[in-house]
Amino acid sequence: MNKLGGNGPGREEDPLAGLSLGRVIITEDEIARRIAELGEAITRDYTGRPPLLVGVLKGAFVFMADLARAIQLPVEMDFMAVSSYGTATKTSGIVRIVKDLDVDLVDRHVLIVEDIVDSGLTLSYLRKGLSAQNPASLEICALLVKTDQQRVDLKIPYVGFEIAPDFVVGYGLDVAEVYRNLRDIRIMDGATS
Predict the structure, then answer these.
(1) Where are the domains of the chain?
(2) Among 13, 83, 105, 158, which is disulfide-ready with 133 (CB 3.0 to 4.6 Å)?
(3) SS3 at position 33
(4) How confident is the model at residue 146 (pLDDT cuts 50, 70, 90)?
């Protein structure tokens, strides 16, 4: 039985117990419009210096695919996977790199593409690590930033939406690896952020 199975002997506890999909806070159309705007801004800002998009897996893959198509420049892409949540709904505060980049960042114009910024600690850790690889520039594009949650000042130039500090799913964001496929972004009722 999969990890979402019952609570019988030898089975993991259901990580979705007590959780349910809540209301839509950002619609599919709102997401599409905002990504088009972000693509225009990035195209304008990176003209003459095409960016290397670095997606943070798994959550940013949907956003990065749509963002890359909205940027009217030749872009390259690579991915990193980090873990600070596991299957929990709250960050553990410990960052673990699960997959590192395949490309060299020296003298590249790197744009980190992130799904959501909570405390900012994971992103701060990534920024420091990537800066040490001597890129020509290093900026961040985040789909969502939770208001009043950041414990570090990241100065993010490209932000899709600022949202309340609720636990959200959809459009790449998950709880226990489900709901990434939703086309909109919804609150996860019963979860604490």
Answers:
(1) 29-189
(2) 105
(3) helix
(4) very high
N-term to C-term CA, the chain: 28
Residue of 78, 102, 104, 118 marked active site = 118
Confidence (pTM): 0.84
Supply the DSSP symbol for 73: S
Burial of residue 181 (CB within 10 Å: 0-12, 13-18, 19+) is exposed
Q: Name the pairing type of β-strands 168-169 and 185-189.
A: antiparallel
Whether 29 is a known active-site residue: answer no
pLDDT tens, 4-60? 333 344 445 666 777 788 999 999 999 999 999 999 999 999 999 999 999 998 999
Cα separation, 119 vs 145, in Å, equals 9
CB 104 within 8 A of CB 136: no
188 phi and psi, to 5 degrees?
-100, 105
Q: What does residue 72 show for φ and ψ, rounded to 5 degrees?
A: -95, 55
DSSP 111: E
Query: From CA 42, how far away is CA 173, in angstroms rounded?
Result: 23
Token pair 């088009």: residue: 36
Q: From the options 3.40.50.2020, 3.50.4.10, 3.40.50.150, 3.40.50.720, give the CATH code of 29-189.
A: 3.40.50.2020
Cis peptide before 155 (omega within 30 of 0): no
Could you tell me the CA-to-CA distances from 167 to 3, 27, 82, 171, 193 in Å, in that order?
Answer: 21, 16, 19, 13, 5
